[in-house]
Structure formats: structure tokens, C-alpha cells
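W.,

You were right to be curious about this one. When I first looked at the sequence I had no strong expectations either way, so I just let the prediction run and decided to look at it fresh. Below is the sequence, 138 residues in total, followed by the output.
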Amino acid sequence: MQKLDVYLRRLRQLASVPLDEYLQNEDLQAIVERRLQLAIQVCIDLANYLVAHHGLRVPDAQDNVFVILGEEKVIPSDLARRMAGMVRFRNILVHDYLEIDSAIVHKLLTTRLGDFDEFGQAMLRLFGIERSGVEAPT
């Protein structure tokens, strides 16, 4: 969870960059893409841990780990759907099999970091941890 906190804090620092400036800065784009990839991976790892810990069925694809958690009411189904979409986005970043649309990445950066917060808070509740380390959406 600490790593997720760090990635989100650093991403939030970049979320105020205007779209036109973001689109002109390939180094900034690479930084944002990498940090998003790492934040998503932390969530995948936590989700896989929960599936194993609860003895749930093994997912047939990475994004299905969140679907399973939603079906089993471990996390809200709407959150499960959004996080599954994050996994598909991560796959595009990692495997580079589709052209990355930097405008879409910027929109995710500026509007979807709250999904990570919600997932992080759900994990903290599941593990019985009370803390405010996962930042609230701004």
C-alpha cells in the first residue's frame, strides 16, 4: 500500500499539467505512463493476494481478478469493473500492441486517480487497517 501511496502522490503532482503541455512533452508522458503502470500492478498484486487468501477461483486473465472480487462481494462490482479496465489499459502500456493515445492517458491522469484511492481504501478495510495514507481524490 505504501508503494501505491507514493505512485499516486507523484501522479497527482503531474495531474495539473495542462493537456497541450503534456502532449508536447514525451518525457513527461513516459513518466506518467510508467507510474500508472506501476500503480495498476500494485493493485493487481493485492487483488491476486485476496483471491488466493479467500480461496476464490483462479482468474483466467489478469483483469478477471477484479471481476472475481466483485462477484464475490469482496469489492463493489462497479469498482471491480473500473479496475478491470485499468488492467486492460496497463496491458496496452506494457505490451505496446496498440498506439498509446496520450490525450486518453492525460484524461485518466486527471480524472481517474480516485479509482486507485477507492481500491486502496477497500484494501485497508479488508485488512482491518485504519490510516489516511491513501490520499482522497482532489
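Here's what jumped out at me. Residues 19 and 107 are 8 Å apart (CA to CA). And, maybe more interesting for your project: The chain has a mean pLDDT of 90.

Coffee later to discuss?

I.
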